[in-house]
Amino acid sequence: MARRKRVGILTSGGDCGGLNAVTRAVVRHARDYGFDIYGIKDATMGLLSRPVAAEVLDVKGVSGILRYGGTILGTINKNNPFAYPMPDGIVADRSAEVIEGYHQLGLDALIGIGGDGSLAILNKLATQGNWNLVGVPKTIDNDVGTTEHSVGFHTALSIAVEALDRLTYTAISHSRVMVLEVMGRDAGHIAISAGIAGGAHVILMPEIPYSMDKVCQKLLDRKARGHNFSIVVVAEALKTEAGDPVKYTNSLDQSLYGGIGQYIGNEIASRTGIETRVAILGHLQRGGTPSALDRLLGAAFGVAALDLVAEEKYGRMVAWQNRRVVNVAIEEAIAQYRSVEIDGALVETALGLNTYIGEVNA
Ligand code: F6P
């Protein structure tokens, strides 16, 4: 009897809503092909462990997980195997060990679910180690090129919109400006989408320069017209007006975003005299129940990814384009970073709503 095909699956990078929907879809669809699915623990860390940290997943084991937040497989967004920080402070190339982990498991293919950073690392490992890799795009930042949607964005967006709804009530009650800082790394997708859907009056994101005077003028104009509150959304990677990044280093020497919202809030309060409060949404955007759209997208991507394995089409990433699941070269997907399109529909919409989104024509 022919040996059953062994397909590994791992989630890599920051967790987000919809990852478990991908895992469940892959495992369920594997019955159609008679493949064994090996769930690899904690991304490449599982392949680095000896014995390799992986277990065979069956349909019973993934039953109901599409409504769970996080990822049952675990994940990491550090410890790049090509530049691995060792306990003694030395940075080592441990890619050969990770590559060997795939072969020790006897895998015929690997489905890697990740954002642009993770997919770039997995693709490099696949090239060097003769892996058969299929990619699935996931990231709350929505910045993977060649796909209109990545798993996780919609859940984060829904949470950000709910936060804006909540902040609006307290802003109205206290006649305040409320500033919400959202994630998104270098892209402003969460900021502009949540800002529009949540009715923000000012949306600031890294793609568009802004004037603090204009921000304040907008808020003062609203006050003069009788509005007792305003809502401001700020993307975490926005810089100060002078162009300085606002990041901090924690006790583990990790450089993290967080703080630009407070800078914007302080500027607003001191320049306008309007009482202002700031909320940082942070990791709340990543946890919780996945949205319906992320479950759908995760399911569609999981099924399509396994079909690619069955067709032995490797080095490809599933993508959503024009209402269809297609596949593109992983190389192409990671080469095309996707930021907010200045001439796109969302910018046009925000401008049409008279939302201040910065100096679009500067
Ligand atoms: O890339 C996803 C993301 O949530 C970014 O939006 C954010 O900047 C970063 O990860 C936070 O990473 P960590 O979980 O390491 O704090």
Determine Rg (CA atoms, Å): 22 Å
Total strands = 15
Which spans have pLDDT < 50 for at least 5 consecutive residues?
Answer: none
Which molecules other than protein and nucleic acid are bound? 6-O-phosphono-beta-D-fructofuranose
Characterize the quaternary organization of these chains. single chain
**What would CATH call the architecture of the largest domain?**
3-Layer(aba) Sandwich
- Overall number of structural domains: 2
Structural class: alpha/beta
Give helix % range: 25-40%
**What is the average of the pLDDT values?**
97
- The first-to-last residue Cα distance is 67 Å
What count of helical segments does DSSP give?
Answer: 11
Structural write-up:
With 362 residues, the protein is an alpha/beta fold. It folds into two domains: 6-151 and 290-321, Rossmann fold (3-Layer(aba) Sandwich), CATH 3.40.50.450; 154-286 and 342-352, Rossmann fold. It is 37% helix and 19% strand. It has eleven helices and 15 strands. The protein has helices at residues 19-33, 44-48, 95-104, 116-129, 153-174, 189-197, 212-224, 260-272, 292-310, 330-335, 345-352, and strands at 6-11, 36-40, 54-57, 84-85, 91-92, 109-114, 133-137, 177-182, 202-204, 230-235, 247-249, 255-257, 276-280, 316-321, 324-329. The chain has a seven-stranded mixed sheet with strand order 3-2-1-6-7-14-15, sandwiched between helices. Strand 11 and strand 12 form a beta hairpin. Helix 3 packs across helix 4 (116-129), helix 5 (153-174) crosses helix 6 (189-197) and helix 7 packs across helix 8. The longest helix is centred in the middle third of the chain and has 22 residues, at 153-174. The N and C termini lie far apart (67 Å). The site of 6-O-phosphono-beta-D-fructofuranose (F6P) has 13 residues, from strand 12.
